[in-house]
Design brief:
Layout: H1 35-45, E1 57-64, E2 67-68, H2 74-78, E3 88-94, H3 97-105, E4 114-115, E5 122-127, H4 129-138, H5 157-162
C-alpha cells in the first residue's frame, strides 16, 4: 500500500484495499503474498512517495439489502464483480472517505442531491453503479476499473465487519 500522508495519517492502520478508510487517499500496490515476493517486487518497482490532494474527493457508497457499505474510490467500485455492484449507490463529494459513509448512513433526506446542510458532504448522484460512475467521471474522478484484492490490516477488520 502507499499513503501520501505516510506515518502522519492517523487512520493508516485502518487500511483496506477496497475501501476509503484512511484519512488520506491510499493506493494498494502489491500483495498479498510471501515476504520474499514482496521484497522482489519492491526491488524491481521502487515506488516513490508522491503528493495528492485529499480535499474534494469523489467517493462512492453502496446501500444494499438495508446495509450501507464502506466508502470506495470510483475506480475500485468500477472494478467490482457485477454481483457486488448491485444496490443503490451514492456519489459523494467529501474531504475524507469516511465522511461519505457518515453522510450516507444519516437519516432519510440527509443524502439527497446537492450540498448537505448537516455535514461536510455533497451528493452528486444517487442510483445504480452506471449512473454514479458517470457523475463521478463528470466531476473529474478516475473511473478506470481497478481490481484490487479484498485485503486489509488486522486493525481495519472491525470496520469491514461492522459495515457489510
Amino acid at each position: 500500500m502507499f499513503c501520501p500522508g505516510g506515518l502522519t495519517d492517523p487512520n493508516l492502520l485502518d487500511f483496506d484495499a477496497r475501501h476509503a478508510t484512511t484519512a488520506f487517499p491510499t493506493t494498494f500496490l502489491w500483495g498479498p503474498g510471501p515476504r520474499e515476493e514482496a521484497i522482489a517486487w519492491l526491488s524491481q518497482n521502487q515506488p516513490e512517495p508522491d503528493l495528492c490532494d485529499y480535499l474534494d474527493q469523489i467517493i462512492l457508497v453502496r446501500e444494499h439489502d438495508g446495509h450501507v457499505g464502506l466508502p470506495m474510490y470510483p475506480n475500485v467500485a468500477a472494478g467490482l464483480p457485477a454481483t457486488e455492484q448491485r444496490g443503490t449507490w451514492y456519489a459523494v463529494h467529501v474531504d475524507r472517505g469516511l465522511d461519505a459513509l457518515t453522510h450516507a448512513r444519516a437519516p432519510a433526506g440527509h443524502a439527497s442531491a446537492g450540498a448537505c446542510r448537516q455535514c461536510p458532504a455533497e451528493t452528486l448522484a444517487t442510483g445504480d453503479i452506471a449512473a454514479v460512475l458517470a457523475a463521478a467521471r463528470s466531476a473529474g474522478a478516475d473511473i478506470t476499473p481497478q481490481n484490487v484484492p479484498d485485503v486489509r490490516t488486522p486493525f481495519a477488520d472491525w470496520l469491514s465487519r461492522a459495515a457489510p
